[in-house]
Amino acid sequence: MASIFIASLTYTVPIEEIDALLPAHLEWLKAGHASGQFMAWGPREPRDGGLIFIRAQNRSEAERFAASDPFITAGAAKSEMIEWTPRFVGPGLEALSG
After folding, report:
1. Partner of 1 at 20 to 30 A CA spacing, among 9, 13, 47, 63?
2. Which residue in 12, 5, 1, 13 sits closest to 32, CA to CA?
3. What global pTM score does this model have?
4. In this structure, what are the phi and psi dihedrals at residue 30, rounded to the nearest 5 degrees?
5. 50 near 7, Cβ under 8 Å?
């Protein structure tokens, strides 16, 4: 059974460098969604990083997905992986229940 992981990205370079990598990052996110791995994503506020909700079989798989992010491969961000076990989800968020 798949688990849910949250990759918390923190930018390590100026925002202008992030913006230059953004098209490749967005393509990568869309491909991850199309393959069923990425459930949701978005920037944090203030814009110093972002969150990606990942469906994976285990932490190693989730970390492999995150490591292929263009932000990570370019050295523009670092990632912290959080395993999450939802105990309650409200209406409209049923996909998060695993």
Report:
1. 9
2. 5
3. 0.91
4. -65, -40
5. no
Sign of the torsion angle spanned by Cα atoms 50, 41, 79, 90: positive
Which are the contacts of 71, defined by CB distance < 8 A and separation ≥ 6? 9, 11, 18, 21, 25, 77
As beta bridge partners, residue 50 has: 9, 43
What is the C-alpha separation between 66 and 79, in angstroms, rounded? 7
Cα separations in angstroms, 65 against 38, 46, 79: 9, 25, 11
Cβ neighbours around 33 below 10 Å, total: 14
Residue type at 63 in one-letter notation: E
Burial of 12 per CB tally in 10 Å (0-12, 13-18, 19+): middle
Tell me phi and psi for residue 85, to 5 degrees.
-115, 100
